[in-house]
Amino acid sequence: MHELMARQRASVLPLIETLGEGLDETLADPLIARAIVAGVAPGRVWVDDPERPRSTLFWDHDANLCLVGDSDNRTFSQGLDTLLVDVLLPQAAERRTWGYVLRCGPGWQAPAQEWLHSLHPIEDLRQNYVHRAPDQVAAPDGVPEGLALLPVDADFIAHEEWLNIDEVLDWMRQCWASTEAYLEQGFGYALVDASGLLSWCLAEYVVPGACSLGIETDIGHQRQGLGTLVARAALAECARRGLEPHWDCWATNAPSVALARKLGFELVSEYSVLFGWWNPVDHLAIRGSVALRRGKSQEGVRLIERALTRYQEGDTEDAPDDALLTNRSDLSWSLLFGHGGSRVARWYVTAARTRMQLGDMDAAVAHLKGSLDNNWRGADKLESAPEWAPLHGAPGWAELLERLTPPSELDEDEAE
Fold this sequence. Notes:
Layout: E1 2-3, H1 13-17, H2 31-38, E2 44-47, E3 55-59, E4 64-69, H3 74-94, E5 99-104, H4 109-115, E6 122-130, E7 148-151, H5 154-157, H6 165-175, H7 179-185, E8 188-192, E9 197-207, E10 210-217, H8 226-241, E11 244-250, H9 254-263, E12 266-277, H10 280-293, H11 297-313, H12 323-327, H13 341-357, H14 361-373, H15 397-402, H16 412-415
């Protein structure tokens, strides 16, 4: 196992190109790996042989790893499990990344699952889209009143007081070797108002002839068409620079998939990855969510209930098989549970719905009470919503509804 210096990395380019084979199961063109080789993106590269590499591992210093080449290469495989589990993943966790995503070339998925067994990796699908004609996408000819569409350049990032500016700067640090590298070769557009950034689209990885785009909209301003505007501006910039735009997202990310198709992107590959969250509560919840999506109701709800219990108790000591997750994480930076009660409430509602479908009405009512404790925004429709009709008359249902009654509607004796 050898780590390549920057000047040696061009030797792995032929291995990256093999990922274009078998588009039904691999990445069509992993721009992240190309960007690391070019030195545009931060990262490290390991190979079996520096002179004639047959297998290689890329890591971007953040959440992304990519494993390509000859999966039967025993020389490489023997040290890879130790490097991944004992060195790279702990370093990634200490950097406070949300987790990891391991992209595997042909033949690597099964051994990687074995190496990561103690972390309970989740297998799921991502999709890679390409836009063949960005010059045919019309640039925005106007923006909503009170907003401005601005390029994300040196003047832009100087506004340290803006809402969400830290999100953009973090994005740059994750995808670019330096801010200077981004300003020299990257680009992006954002919609801002008086408070700061509402939506933005940035070039994540840029290599000769191509770039990948990343997009985000502030949670309070979604479903207003803002993402479409910044994406169209970025596509127009791709056309001006002669770059083929790429768009990579989770297959289950319906809004991202819909926006890509709306903008004219073409799906070129759907590929399987292994991923996990460093925070043990998040990881349990996502494992449960994936299980539910796959029809495994009992397994899914039990995992979500474990996540909720650990979140409420602040306890990360009850899962010795999650040792890496536990030792490298704490509940204070939970991404799924650490943004206020409303997100916790949604997990309680999911658990309630599943328990109701499984016929456990007592557990369903208990979970709905948990959702109310965490300010569930849909609580006002609880009594009238048809989906909760099976709970009418269940023990605890009447008491649950009483919690929805404003004090002003109680009679004088009840109010006291």
